[in-house]
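Figure 2 data, in text form.
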Amino acid sequence: MHYRQLGDSDVQVSVICLGTMTFGEQNTQAQAHQQLDHAVENGVNFIDTAEMYAIPVRAETQGLTEQYIGTWLGKRADRDKLIVATKVAGPNPNMTHLRGGPKLIADHIHQAIDASLHRLQTDYVDLYQVHWPARSTNYFGKLGYEHNGEEHAETIESTLSTLTELVRAGKIRHIGVSNETPWGVAQYLRLAETHGYARIVSIQNPYNLLNRSFEVGLAEFAHRDDVGLMAYSPLGFGALSGKYLDGQQPEGARLTRWSDYFPRYITDLAKKVTQQYVEIARNAGLDPAQMALAYVNSRRFVTANIIGATTLKQLEMNIASANISLANDVLEAIESVHLSQPNPCP
């Protein structure tokens, strides 16, 4: 396993981060514990979750993911060796089961972190992230920014001020953002420098062969300001494995069960481009999923690649991608496809 520095902190994280949003929906507590054990035994020290998980979002399963991690974490003697990351939900009118509708205001953030710490059975989290912005902007696949002058969203400064309080109180070690834009990242950095607030060390955004939009605007921040990418959806919810091609709908798979929830990775265009990437992998004697993950691992602006799995076999394959180096001809073939059809699944 390879390790990389988390932003400008002194924390070293494994390039493979265990994503856990299936815990409590597709995976039982026993299966979750098996995944956690296997990941740590194979060098993974980085675990990512969120207060709103499991996915898809349901009141009945909210918090189960953190709870399953907590029942595992509470029995371990090596808590200080593990890097545990979670997130506070941004505003969403459809999530009334979470504090009556989550907001990025001080009271809600304090409630959120205390609840997460209780479920995780720990006194602190290593990385606390804002799951999505409070303002109208481009995230979750939205394109074409439209300004809403009527909105009265919580300001980044008020959110950052509260997160800084939590850092000083010892409840969180570092802070990060997720589903953010270049403007948002710039604001977090400017306010930290101007007012002495805690500085963000990471940004968790989607990044995969079907969506390389992070490279436009945000990758430069990763390099110049040490705000490294925690890449989520590196397989496009499993689409880049090729398992949904040719009309296949594997039983129990995410895009089989919830195609309406994650539609952008199974459009006709997405399948056409996915087929091209799968052919590159097969011609090179590579597993398509491992090639897709190895590509993400190879990007210099990536701090960690957040992989998820529903079976131990998938998890083993995904973790093994950390040891795969792609040949130049494979990289050139990938770039050729990208240039012909950039970002078909933003």
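Caption note: The radius of gyration is 19 Å.
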